Amino acid sequence: MSQAPQKQKIVTRFAPSPTGYLHIGGARTALFNWLFARGHGGTFLLRIEDTDRARSTPEATAAILKGLDWLGLDHDGEVVSQFERAPRHAEVAREMLARGAAYKCFSTQEEIAAFREAAKAAGTSQLFRSPWRDADPATFPDAPYVIRLKAPREGVTVIRDAVQGDVTIRNDQLDDMICLRSDGTPTYMHAVVVDDHDMGVTHVIRGDDHLVNAARQMQIYHAMDWDVPVFAHIPLIHGPDGKKLSKRHGAVGLEEYQAMGYPAPGMRNYLARLGWSHGDDEFFTDEQAKSWFELEGINRAPARLDFKKLENICGQHIAVTPDDVLLAQISGYLAAAELPALSAAQETALLAALPVVKQGAKTLPQLLEKARFTLISRPVEMDEKAAKQLDPVSRGILKQLTPQLQNASWTREELEAIITQEAQAQGLGLGKLAAPMRAALTGRTVTPGIFEMMVLLGREETLARLNDQVA
């Protein structure tokens, strides 16, 4: 059976199970599929694998769709529900039966359990070998049965993996997997293959925890004379300690990253670099990533999550993001973090301040903290450090300064000249005068430059805040 030809139109898919939040590892898998399809003029499909009716929830499906939307991974066509395709899965299982590639198995759960107990006691393989595989149909009982794949028992199955290389698995290590249960419902392993074939998927890019599944699923492709897609099994994401990523390492759900204020372009950039590389490039745009992304660039070793690198990448994206786009990202963050939305006046003030405050901010909360002086209203609330800057001497100096600012032309250059002159007249360095001004205007000791803030606040608001402290 030949692999899917490389020159045909590429079709990838992301197929999460809606049994919980969208894991950051799943988000990276979706990103790799999206980049590969978009970069090659192909199609990126979305399938919700909701066959586990006991654990699948509409809320989890909504969370997955919301997470992909935030990350900016648009899919083509309608979202496919695996559960709704159950009749098609059953049809293929019966066709395999008719072809002699599958068989009816009447073994009960109790018989299978007894077999495995006996094998365990004897120290032999617990891989179940059904006595019904080659049974005469005349001996079939009038009882429920499952449809099992008639897998080869000799030789090997070779997975030609675009990431892992050739992976060889002995066929005597594979069982005759169940395709259709006795109640007529398909198994996940069977449904995946039917869906991928029917959706025209050419490249199956997924976590390497599915690698052994590929060997079993290939048997269904062979049984139906279908083209086998290109498999690309990507290593999982580990925590900084090298162990499989879990909640003990911090956030693992994609929505947590949005609520912590990481911008989506920065997340895309960082996740792309998490297990894939293009030379030494660390910071890049979506268009560059689409152009560069190839399966050969995926590493075989697990990637390690590094929050410092994530923040650095996000900071670089914040610095180059257009201000109106950044404002929309901030609104989305506030909603995700369940924080109050900005008023129209605050949005206007923030938009004016963004060119000044976005440099150096690594997350959206950091950006908002830098821009806090434009969002607060009088009287300015002081933190402990700022309050210490406003002692009686400092207030006296500010009292002498404010009349000189009253008639200033309110350019950065003139404001700097006036304040520098006053500092010299007081026998102080500029920093000694800037510190109480900074405290009076913002209630903080760490802020953007004093003159940039005064220009943004304007004459009336600046003088009002200074006079509040002088009074």
Write the layout of secondary structure elements.
Blueprint lengths: L10 E4 L9 H16 L3 E6 L9 H14 L8 E2 L4 H14 L2 E4 L3 H14 L23 E4 L6 E6 L3 E6 L7 E3 L7 H11 L4 E5 L3 H13 L6 E5 L2 E2 L15 H6 L4 H10 L12 H7 L10 E2 L2 H14 L2 H14 L7 H14 L6 H7 L1 H4 L8 H6 L2 H15 L5 H14 L4 H13 L7 H21 L1
Parallel strand pairs: 1-2, 2-3, 9-10, 11-12
Antiparallel strand pairs: 4-5, 5-8, 6-7
Strand proportion: 5-15%
What helical percentage do the residues reach? 40-55%
Shape, per Cα inertia axes: elongated
Total helical segments = 19
**Order of neighbouring strands in the sheet with most strands:** 1-2-3
Largest sheet: 3 strands, parallel
Mean pLDDT: 94
Multimeric state of these chains? Answer: single chain
Number of strands: 12
Unreliable residue runs: none
What's the alpha carbon Rg, rounded to whole Å?
31 Å
Counting helices, strands and paired strands, the structural category is: mainly alpha
Structure characteristics:
471 residues; mainly alpha; 19 helices; 12 strands; 10% strand; elongated
